[in-house]
Amino acid sequence: MTSLRNKLRSTVGHEAGTTGFRTAPYPSRSRETRRGLTEPVVFRTLSEAALETRAETLAGSAAEREDELLEDLPDPPAVEYVADGSDQPYLQEIRELLPGLEQRARADAENAELWQALGEGQLAVGDAQAAARSFEAAVAITLSNPEHMLLLARARFAVGEFGAVVDLVKDALKHEPRRTRPYLLLLAEAYQKQGMFDQEVDTCVEALRGAPKEAALLFRLGLAYTHRGLSELAYRAFTLALREDPELHEARLNLGALLRSQGSTALAIRTFREALQRRPDSWEAYYNLGFLYAQIKAHARAIWAYRRAFRACPFPEALSAISYNLGIVCVQMKLWREAADAFRNATDYKPEN
After folding, report:
1. Helix/strand/coil for 12
2. SS3 assignment, position 305
């Protein structure tokens, strides 16, 4: 995003410079990636005997459960609440640059680069409709420039015109068949949004042909298989992605969710703990651990995990869900004051509750 800001500044005649801004602590990922954490899938489960043994091991006596709160994992850093699309000083600077850039683009209406820069700035600040108009102007000038078509497709995706995205990407691929990766990934997202899961899977498979060991593509294929309900293939794709890149946090989260959703509790717990070893500030991993520990009635551990999730999470809707779940576990442990505080937090962060 810094490069975009500098590009806009130089385009409207300002010297490119730096400005301090607070980056959102939430890992950069698409909404679709986050949605994948709760996808319903089918997956083999552990035997009931194995689950009971694991539950007994994790739960233990009350004293043992208290000892389990002394984890070897470091505390996640406390964060302040920030909304999606934070970095407000940076975005405000872009907003201030846009009127001058739009004036230049209109004065030099045949300059596709000006329209492209304007559209990128508008898309960065969330004005997807205006961005689409700017990219349309660039496409009208260059006619068959696949980069401008891809940018227009992204703006159309942002406003929910997924059918138009499919048509634009397919048209762009006719003019630039070699640069397929970003085009095919956007096409897969558009298919997924329309519930066309077979086409989503096929598109991800096609993208992998050019880079069969690329972790990000294997992860995206795992999501596609998850949407399709092909759990064994999703498991294999996530596992391969992590083999190629053990630091791919989103793949580990989704692998844990895949295991969790069908009852492989012990494996899911291990997966989320592995995620925390690599990313101690992952509120999603703590949140899932809280759910899993509560499920096997390791209530003290669930409280520990939910509290850490609350400490690390910067998003209000998630904070509300974390607090509500924490309150439920506190009620089960008859911690009435803590339960009341948790339910109050749930209401504060999401008043409609």
Report:
1. coil
2. helix
